[in-house]
Amino acid sequence: MAGSRHRARELALKALFQLESSPEGPLAAVEYVAGEQGSEPAEREFAWRLVAGVLEHGEEIDSLIRAASTNWSPEQMGRVDRTVLRIAVFEIRFGGEVPLRAALNESIDLAKTFAGEESGRFVNGVLGRIVAGAAREVPS
Is the entire prediction scored with pTM above 0.85? Predict the structure, then answer.
């Protein structure tokens, strides 16, 4: 299932890219990219949950990213960094079905794959600050 989830995250990343430049709906974007990749139904379903979650919680996700990124607002970030961060923050804060470490590692891997080593370090740093902030919010 881990490889399937990785492919689903790639699918969600590509579908969210598609939505930035196309007026089609989120389900259509996921189906279009999934068709091109030959994705399995479970991958499509997980990707759809990620895309829908990112869109539903977009303002709160971007607020968390903005607070954790000292020099860049989400609008100023590269598309890969911004989109990977949005997916990761959704999984960490709202998804609830993936272990924290898996969400972090997958996000860093996606950033490295689609934008390079430096992008992976950037995503790691921002997510580290978001996770640290969330830990401080939990009452002891």
Answer: yes
